[in-house]
UniProtKB/TrEMBL annotation:
Entries under Pfam families matching the protein: PHB_depo_C (PF06850)
Name this polypeptide is given: Polyhydroxyalkanoate depolymerase
Domain PHB de-polymerase C-terminal: residue ranges: 204-404
Organism: Bradyrhizobium australiense
InterPro entries the UniProt entry points to: AB_hydrolase_fold, PHA/PHB_synthase, PHB_depo_C, PHB_depoly_PhaZ
Signal peptide range in chain numbering: none
Length: 406
């Protein structure tokens, strides 16, 4: 097993004074009145900004949803942890004096970024729903004695969180956790669990990755599972609370993401430097805000990552009826009296058309009139749950689906 993570952390610790110094100098430069050698100070400020930002953060950014317009009334929003385990919190976005609305659990992916990546999704959903989210914790901050966290643990968390929310809640799973959300719904239905969801919405999720495989799918199948264990799994560095926990490090995942669109990211940082040098603060702020979120990375528990690659992307256990949960088969056909909605993006290069739709065929117990499928034209993966098309075209369909089945 590689010690790359430890070496990376040591390097970050050693170079931290340079970034701190650059940030401090930048604060002083910002006090210089405009018009005083703008060109010189602008270039210097741009250089210092890039130096101070040359690291990742492992702390969850804020959701920053403090107030929200519901109808014609502005309501205060507060975050409340309803329930927590060492690995995740059930976070409730509580609206003061809000009318009664359908309770909805947004199931966030564990994919190298925090659940705050769904901030815009939450904000839209909050207009018509009482929203909760699976707010996952960073494994590098979770002590070793808290135990393991695998694919079954993820599914258990979804079941437990729904139990805490109570009967007739609605589930919206984004991307990767669609498999666990479907498994949780199946197990709860088979057990006649009182808190089984009223609806299940799966958005751009890898239910059956044998259908039109993407580059991501092909990479997952290109190497044996022990290659992933040997080359991608590292120990959390000794400086961290989760020292010696096995993880797939966030910085390794981010490197892979960046390398897929390297030219675009280089271009963005050149533009950032140019905006700063010219004093175009608003344009610079847009780029900075995006990368503040993008460079906030979260490690993945090794067990969860390896089991997901093996069970979902290599062996396709769910669509073949072979996925197990705590020793029992996961049976999507057991889902009854529940609405099922699947959403896909036409240009999704991570989860292609048909992979999420496959859930409709697996859930044979759901009546046809309770099934909805939507393929959104003109959007890629992220466009399914954020941006204009999500707000104006996808969300109204989801909102109506939830309310009809409420």
């Amino acid at each position: 097993m590689s010690m790359m993570y430890q070496a990376y952390q040591n390097h970050m610790d050693l170079t931290a004074p340079w970034r701190t110094g650059a940030a401090a100098t930048l604060n002083y430069l910002n006090l210089v009145p405009q018009g005083v050698s703008d060109k010189l100070f602008g270039r210097l400020a741009a250089s210092l900004e890039l130096i101070s930002r040359s690291s990742l953060t492992y702390a969850r950014p804020a959701y920053g949803i403090d107030r929200l317009l519901v109808g014609n009334q502005e309501l205060e929003v507060t975050e409340e942890v309803t329930f927590a385990t060492p690995f995740g919190s059930l976070l409730h976005f509580k609206k003061e004096n809000a009318p009664e609305q359908p309770r909805l659990l947004l199931v966030a992916p564990m994919s190298g970024h925090f659940a705050t990546l769904l901030r815009a999704t939450v904000k839209t959903l909050l207009q018509d729903h009482d929203v909760y989210i699976t707010d996952w914790h960073n494994p590098r901050d979770i002590p070793l004695h808290a135990g393991r966290f695998g694919l079954e643990d993820y599914t258990d968390h979804v079941i437990t969180f729904l139990d805490k929310i109570g009967p007739r809640a609605h589930v919206v799973a984004i991307c990767q956790p669609s498999v666990s959300a479907l498994a949780a719904a199946a197990v709860m239905s088979e057990d006649n669990h009182p808190a089984r969801p009223a609806t299940l919405t799966l958005m751009a999720g890898p239910i059956d990755t044998r259908i039109q495989p993407t580059k991501v799918n092909e990479f997952a199948k290109s190497k044996p599972i022990n290659w992933f264990e040997k080359n991608l799994i590292n120990y959390v560095p000794v400086q961290c609370k989760g020292a010696f926990r096995k993880v797939y490090p966030g910085f390794v995942q981010l490197t892979a993401f960046v390398s897929m669109n390297l030219e675009r990211h280089i271009k963005q940082h050149i533009e950032l430097a140019n905006h700063l040098a010219k004093g175009e603060k608003e344009k610079a702020e847009i780029i900075k805000t995006f990368y503040d979120e993008y460079f906030a990375v979260m490690d993945l528990p090794a067990e969860f990552y390896i089991e997901t690659v093996r069970d979902v992307f290599q062996e396709h256990l769910l669509p073949q009826g072979k996925l197990m949960h705590r020793g029992r088969p996961v049976n999507p056909a057991a889902i009854r009296r529940m609405g099922l909605m699947t959403v896909e993006g036409e240009k999704d290069d991570i989860c292609s058309i048909g992979q999420t739709l496959a859930a409709q065929d697996l859930c044979t117990g759901v009546r046809a009139y309770r099934k909805v499928h939507h393929m959104q034209a003109g959007v890629g993966h992220y466009g399914v749950f954020s941006g204009k098309r999500w707000n104006n075209e996808i969300y109204p369909l989801l909102r109506d689906f939830v309310h009809v089945n409420a």
